[in-house]
Amino acid sequence: ITSYHPNGQNEAPQLGWLARSDPRSDLVHSLFQSGGSASLSLLLNGVSSTPNPVTQSQIEAISPIAQLRKGSYNVPTFIVHGSEDEILPCNASVAFDKAMRERGIESGICVIEGAKHLHDLGVEEGSEMWMRGVGPGYEFLLKGLGIRVPGK
Fold it and tell me: Which of 32, 34, 82, 125 could make a disulfide contact with 38, Cβ separation 3.0–4.6 Å?
């Protein structure tokens, strides 16, 4: 993750996340284009020549909010989310962060104003965007590991 540097140009600047050479873009784009239930079926059941509907229990098994409500999610979590995310509404992450805090689970959230879903494409370490969007996540992680954050 720390050495992820996609190549290529953003081919859909209005979406903010498509780059031909970026495998994340490829996956997200294909799932986004195929629609809700087909996307979930592909992720949960794999490729199949026969329809394989997704069950409620499968969805709950991979849903952090469902696991949180069930009481089985207790992982300290830091969320970085673009306010203009076109895939997952930012308010879902804000609500998840709030729900974790209400249950006493260590959490944090950094909303990047104006950013879209894969806003970190091409972000260079030490840049202003890195300091705003990636740096706080590292600080959260290091603090959780009991490692002193340099300069703090």
Answer: 34
